[in-house]
Amino acid sequence: MNHSNILKFIQKAHYTTNRSILPSKTIKTILKDNSTNVSVRGWVRSVRKQKQISFATINDGSTLKGIQAILNEKDAEKLSTGTCVELYGSLIPSPGKEQSKELNVEKMKILGECDSTYPLQKKRHSLEFLRTIGHLRMRGNTGSAVLRVRNAANEGLHDFFKSQEFILTNTPILTSHDCEGGGEVFKISPIDTTNPTEFFKKPVYLTVSGQLHAEITALAMSRVYTFGPVFRAEESMTSRHLAEFWMLEAEMAFIDELAPLLDVTEANVQETTRYVLDTCSEDLSFFNQWVDKSLLERLQKSIAKPYVRMTYSEAIDVLQKAQNKHKFQFPTEWGSSLQSEHERYLASEYCKHPVFITDYPAELKPFYMRANEDGKTVGCFDLLLPGIGELVGGSLREERYAILEQKMREAKMNIEDYQWYLDLRKYGSAPHGGYGIGFERLLLWLTGLENVREVIPMPRWVGHCKY
Ligand code: 4AD
């Protein structure tokens, strides 16, 4: 085939992404479609048995409410909460206010019976209890709504990066370095400690951040992002920390000041919020009703105007002025790190809006952040959200070989191990920067839930690795 024929051939091979491949339809699609004779598969959420007719709510995870099925007494007798069923029947207008259509069942098949010990009976359960049955909690309203919002936030993030011409590059999970230098790395155990030819022949860790690898790809592809699980052996048992969490990391070449980096971060979070508001209204209304009555208003407000921007030095001034009234437990001297009480005050009380704090003292931040002209601070930022605290951390990266090498020596790093990182500054270095969004913290923001353990399907934290 010659070149122009190849092009014609490729143009013909267009995708048909809207065609459903599976033979059955989800409840979401069934309720939207105009078909009358349908089959529904899902799990029974509740059964109401009455004298002549009975009702069951069936949910397959595609919508919050599921579908109401009308059954005869004999069929209803075989059902209990949790049973997995396949129902065939006609879709008819519903006289009730709760739903517009319901399913008049003609044929029923039980796919999986459910034991009477099923722990998710129809009643309100505490989030702590639901966490103890992580293998079943997505069968309830909160668990399934979380997963749909999680999915929408995923889509929103990818949509944003596509619109800005970023390339998704998948950085590795196994690494030989500690990007943040915090020493919170999980070490991979050798298969056989006595064997001198152990697998990697050097210490290997689970990644704490894909940033250094994203820098490699950004310094060839210009605009990149990566999205995957990262691991931190943090002993802290707070509602904001997990040992395994997902981080969205963006890295871009050809920026030499913080402003455009903050612009991208702000648009990234705002556009993702907008995407979730547009595509998940039913689930967000549910969270607004049951979890956080200010959720929808807060999210709408957060996309309506730009985030506040202030330097670390300005933030310290603000905190010192508030010291008399607030009696912060930790110091608010220039040079001290911002603790959660400070972050909470700045975002929730002082700004009442997401706020970027920029240009922290160099001593508080990792080696890779770009030194500012003042010789004291680095070109970096944290994005703080009201009620959440830090959502994003990012910086310009030190692209000057000599300064970077000096910083690595000061941090007592083994230069040989990081020669490849220095090489990037030797072979066509470019000003660049990037940031990392903690995905579970973003989900707290989007759902109003208060603990990151609620928004990841199988949470891992110190002392806990069930499933
Ligand atoms: O501020 P961090 O440590 O930044 C980095 O790792 C950079 N290398 C990212 C980059 O520039 N590419 O982490 C980024 C975000 C935090 O702002 C926070 O939202 C989240 O990750 N995070 C955690 N989320 C859950 N559990 C933990 N233990 C977390 N630690 C950080």
Strand segment tally: 15
Distance between the termini: 52 Å
What are the bound molecules?
4-amino-1,4-dioxobutan-2-aminium adenosine-5'-monophosphate
Mean pLDDT: 93
Shape: globular
Instruction: Find the structural class using helix and strand composition.
Output: alpha+beta
Kindly estimate the percentage of residues that lie in beta strands according to DSSP: 15-25%
SS summary, helix count: 14
Major sheet? 8 strands, mixed
Order of helices and strands: HHEEEHEEHHEEEHEEHHHEHHEEEHHEH
Sequence stretches where pLDDT stays below 50 over 5 or more residues = none
Share of helical residues:
25-40%
Q: In which order are the strands of the major sheet placed? A: 6-9-10-15-14-13-12-11
Radius of gyration, taken over Cα atoms and rounded to an integer in Å: 26 Å
Can you walk me through this structure?
- The chain contains 14 helices and 15 strands.
- It is an alpha+beta fold and 467 residues long.
- Strands 6-9-10-15-14-13-12-11 form an 8-stranded mixed sheet. A 5-stranded mixed β-barrel has the order 1-2-3-5-4.
- Residues 179-180, 209, 211, 232, 234, 241-242, 245, 247, 249, 390-394, 434-436, 438, 440-441, 452 line the site of 4-amino-1,4-dioxobutan-2-aminium adenosine-5'-monophosphate.
What are the defining features of this structure?
about 475 residues; alpha+beta; five-stranded mixed barrel; globular; binds 4-amino-1,4-dioxobutan-2-aminium adenosine-5'-monophosphate
Layout of SSEs?
Layout: H1 3-12, H2 27-32, E1 37-49, E2 53-59, E3 67-72, H3 73-77, E4 84-93, E5 101-112, H4 127-132, H5 141-163, E6 167-168, E7 174-175, E8 205-206, H6 211-221, E9 223-231, E10 244-253, H7 258-279, H8 281-290, H9 295-304, E11 308-311, H10 312-326, H11 340-351, E12 355-358, E13 380-385, E14 389-396, H12 401-410, H13 419-423, E15 432-438, H14 439-447
Parallel strand pairs: 3-5, 6-9, 11-12
Antiparallel strand pairs: 1-2, 1-4, 2-3, 4-5, 7-8, 9-10, 10-15, 12-13, 13-14, 14-15
The structure holds 4-amino-1,4-dioxobutan-2-aminium adenosine-5'-monophosphate (4AD).
Residues 179-180, 209, 211, 232, 234, 241-242, 245, 247, 249, 390-394, 434-436, 438, 440-441, 452 line the site of 4-amino-1,4-dioxobutan-2-aminium adenosine-5'-monophosphate (4AD).
